[in-house]
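If you are new to this repository, start here. Below is one unmodified record pulled from the training split, so you can see the exact layout before writing a loader.
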Amino acid sequence: MDTVTDRRTEGAPMTAGTRLEPFPVNVRVKISALWASMMFIFAYVDLFSFYRADVRADIAAGQIGGFTINQSFLLGFTAYVVIPALMVFGALVLQPRINRVVNIALSVVYALTIVGAAIGEWNYYLLGSAIEVVLLAAVAYYAWTWPKVATIRS
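And here is the target side for that same chain:
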């Protein structure tokens, strides 16, 4: 049997091909992936709503969720969707301190709005919303526990 040396277990032999190398994932990448996942679910849950006759009827009547569909509504809704979409990139490029604060604040705000929008909805919507909230909680968790780097002061 071929053996290799495992650097993490102080040279203990192991059988070649029996373990996968666990590379750590940077916190920025984790947060970015969570925002992307949340956006996919966000989009699909809303798209699935178009299969509902009541939603289509409301839209045909110029209403959705008690709001009148007009330029102001569509502009506000576009801004609401654009912000987390931009966080997919923002999580990768913002300065750590700003990144941390923005991710915590936005994940909490979006989780609250998602919970509010889910009240009285159908089960598919509740499931999608619950998953979105869990993903946003993970964003807040990773931002809150962002690894610290030791600095040397002279």
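Two things worth knowing about this chain: The chain is about 65% helix and 5% strand. The two ends are 53 Å apart (CA to CA).
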